[in-house]
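quick one before i forget lol
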Amino acid sequence: MLPIDPTKKISFSHIVCDGDLVIVYERHDNMKAVKVCQDSVLQNRFGVFKHSDWIGKPFGSKVFSNKGGFIYLLAPTPELWTLVLSHRTQILYIADISFVVMYLEIVPGCLVLESGTGSGSLTMSLARAVAPTGHVYTFDFHEQRVTSAREDFEKTEVSNLVTVGVRDIQGEGFPEEFSGLADSVFLDLPQPWLAIPSAAKMLKPDGALCSFSPCIEQVQRACDTLISKFTDIRTFEVLLRTYEVQEVRMDCSQGDGVNLGSLIRKRRRRSGEGNNVQDNLSSPTVMARPCSEAKGHTGYLTFARLKCLS
């Protein structure tokens, strides 16, 4: 692992400034990235919002439109960026990303190799994990995707931590200049087994590799290739179930099959409570329930550790 300079710290302004990128939060399923410009406005169903009213406010502020509607101004964290970025390819989401960063033991000062870059969802989280003294080198064979990724990394101000290159890793392998220097390697390729021999050369002794594949047949063939130079080979499928938490008013006197109001009244009478049951039945209640649209299978994560040859 690269040495960490304790005198260097990640600088982050908690105040919105002209030229900053902010995440405009309308509701949990409607967010967008907006670059703040003194003379610009944002128009949506809640009204017209002047950017000049945003400047100088702390991230997380609630700002109002000319009609009294409101939005929240959030900082462009990797988690939020994953939800608003342009999808040039299928992306990894928070559940897989957090598992990858943890299992590859990516910490400040690490040197990480990634292929392919795609939409840059994972790359943003890798950059934050290696900051302030590490670096992420990411490659994609598609030149236009590389150009778009560079622009995104400039917007989100992680370009000093990420270098993007055009390269066919399956056909050419990683650049020889990284031989024996990488702490970890991440592969998101249709044929990862073609890149595994090159990845093994790039890793430090006991370095870790992760390969993301949507199909189990890809996993099987990759594992066949990993066995010769890697150990501790494991494959995971991460499934995430999210819940909606809302405050609602429930009329317990009307239910499907079971009259909740009747049950409560019987309990109250047995316990000798007063006659304020009806008021309590219509009071606000906080409910948690599974989201109606749950994401299922995204892909398989195969991890392996380079064998230490004596």
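fyi The chain has two domains: 21-76, 80-239+296-306.
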